[in-house]
Design goal:
This protein is α/β, with parallel strands linked by helices. It is built from 10 helices and 12 strands. Strands 3, 4, 5, 6, 9, 10, 11 and 12 form an 8-stranded mixed β-sheet that branches. The chain has a two-stranded antiparallel ribbon with strand order 1-2. α1 packs across α2. The longest helix has 28 residues.
Length: 314
């Protein structure tokens, strides 16, 4: 295969543009003899004559013009590569893979991606929905660059493999069927619901969060039904089959808003004195938060979380 030398091709292009060896040497901060030697070597590498004498000057041969026609495409591609690499180094280009649990995707990740697509359109964010434990397995295995999960299921802050970034304290509201005796009760507390049938997952994060919140309020919840998805849980609540703790991020997406209220035949009540919360965190492999692309995604997630908290408080 013919050997193409980018440096020598640049010298040939400059000679075409400047017209003389002397002018080429001045433009490239070289000596005329060095320019001549480099072009002679290029001619040998390509196996064609590139220059021919024309009086006291030289001119490019047809073969040289053919070579430069193809070289221009190479130079243009290298310019694009330089621009893209520069964008990558400044965090404006590249790919960041994000694993996030289901309710965090519409509530935090999608708003962050929308902002990034406007501010940094060449930054490609790829989303993968994953439960808490799986998200960290993917992160540790290098299959994603950033994981959103719950603090209770995140690696310890002492685990040097990961860097943790707190994002949001998401309040848990109680979902009651419309017409429930306590639907309009003032100052509703979690302990007031100790005798109610509860709906929550049989295992995993939400089961643990529900039981922990109820136990902190002084009772063990009676699990009447088991479900993992919010559509199923709220459908059962609406049917009067039980009550459930629901993260405000999940209920807000169903309402298209941010505060507690109604969802179809379900009444969402804010608990007064013992408001439980789940803490959402982002995690990256140790040191990766300093990478410019990952840093931009984290910044966008923080802004989305701050906006979410502002809406929840209003």
């Amino acid at each position: 295969m013919t050997e193409w030398d980018i440096k020598k091709l640049r010298i040939l292009r400059t000679l075409r543009d400047r017209g003389t060896v002397t002018a080429t040497a001045e433009a490239l901060l070289m000596t005329p003899s060095a320019v001549s030697q480099q072009l002679t070597n290029l001619s040998k590498q390509l196996g064609v004559r590139l220059l021919e004498a024309q009086g006291r000057r030289v001119r490019l041969t047809d073969a040289a013009h053919l070579v430069l026609r193809h070289a221009e495409a190479v130079f243009a591609q290298l310019e694009r590569a330089d621009a893209e690499l520069d964008g990558y180094l400044r965090g404006e280009a590249g790919q960041v893979r994000v694993a996030a649990f289901s309710t965090a995707v519409p509530a935090l990740v999608v708003p962050a991606v929308r902002r990034l697509r406007t501010a940094h359109p060449r930054l490609d964010v790829r989303i993968r929905e994953a439960e808490a434990a799986e998200a960290y397995e993917l992160l540790a295995a290098g299959e994603v660059d950033l994981a959103l999960s719950l603090a209770a299921h995140a690696p310890s802050a002492r685990d040097s493999r990961f860097g943790r970034v707190p994002l949001l304290a998401d309040p848990l509201d109680v979902a009651l069927p419309a017409g429930h005796p306590l639907a309009d009760a003032p100052g509703l507390r979690l302990a007031d619901l100790a005798a109610e049938p509860w709906i929550y997952g049989g295992s995993g994060p939400w089961s643990e969060i529900t039981t922990a919140a109820c136990e902190a309020a002084g009772f063990v919840p009676e699990q009447a039904h088991s479900a993992a998805g919010w559509t199923a849980i709220l459908a059962m609540v609406e049917a009067g089959m039980g009550i459930a703790l629901v993260p405000r991020m999940a209920s807000a997406e169903r309402r298209g808003g941010g505060g507690a209220g109604g969802v179809g035949g379900v009444v969402m009540r804010v608990l007064s004195a013992d408001q439980p919360r789940r803490h959402v965190v982002a995690a990256v492999r140790g040191g990766a938060e300093e990478g410019p692309a990952v840093s931009r995604v984290l910044t966008a997630l923080r802004r989305a979380a701050a906006e979410r908290e502002t809406v929840q408080q209003n």
